[in-house]
Amino acid sequence: MKDKVKRMVSDFNSELKLKGFRAFQIEQDTNETRTYSRKEFYKICLTTGKSKIHYSDKTFEQEGTILFFGNPHIPYSWETISSTYAGYTILFSEEFFKNSERSESLQQSSFFKIGGTPVLKITEEQRDFLNTLFQKMIAEQESDYLYKDELIRNYISLIIHESLKLEPAENIDHNQNAAFRLTSVFLELLERQFPIETTDHPLQLKSAQEFAKSLNVHVNYLNRSVKEITGKSTTSHISERILTEAKALLQHTDWNISEIAFALGFDYPTYFNNFFKKQTGTNPKAFRSAEV
């Protein structure tokens, strides 16, 4: 039985990583849907029941229908209190969501942003409308429609935009600690450097030491805080964001490899090539050719 569950978990995670998204009904949820990597996927969850959500250093106690926004950069846990629980969930990667050239980072949106409010109280009328959107995503992901990925991205955007119209949930326990505040500033400072729009001004902050100096803190304290809050190292966040920008520049500009390397703060194109190959398994030139 355990081997069967492991295979189901493996199949679920493989499909999720391959497609970049997965929508499902919570009533039909099985063990594999609870073991996805939170470090890679955002989550929007529409649920009805009684629960307690621990999100970073906040606690949300909820009863009734809520809409929850999970950020993979922020640790959270969910306690289900009621005996019955129902709803829908969509998991998706930032790369999947931004594949349609959306410029806004999910981390900067009102609900996914660090320090924001990830829980919204939903009325019965709003729940009926949102139920329909989740049901459409579940049906669409199994279809053969050529542009279903873009359609599902549009449904996700519609959920986010509909949520912007609603009032934030009450009953929030605010107790931000120093590590959380420092991590928030670091991630915002990191994101503020992008997108890169010219080759004339190379990336200024590209290492943990440079960010620590800019924030006027010791690098060990920064590293410890970021790891504690996000579960990932400072260097990992920097590398992943530079890689995302590198892919965008290779796909959407006619800059040569040397210009891209310089714009991203690499002293020599060879350093950029080595970095890109280590992260992706291929070199920038091959990646660009494959995307054409």
Structural account:
With 292 residues, the chain is α+β, with helices and mostly antiparallel strands. It folds into two domains: 163 residues, Jelly Rolls; 114 residues, Arc Repressor Mutant, subunit A. The protein is 47% helix and 16% strand. It is built from eleven helices and six strands. Strands 1, 2, 3, 4, 5 and 6 form a six-stranded antiparallel β-sheet that branches. Strand 2 and strand 3 form a beta hairpin. The protein starts with a helix and ends with a helix. This is Helix-turn-helix domain-containing protein. Pfam families: HTH_18 (PF12833). Keywords: DNA-binding, Transcription, Transcription regulation. InterPro entries: Homeodomain-like_sf, HTH-like, HTH_AraC, Tscrpt_reg_AraC-type_HTH.
Give a brief outline of the structure.
With 292 residues, this protein is of the alpha+beta class. It is 47% helix and 16% strand.
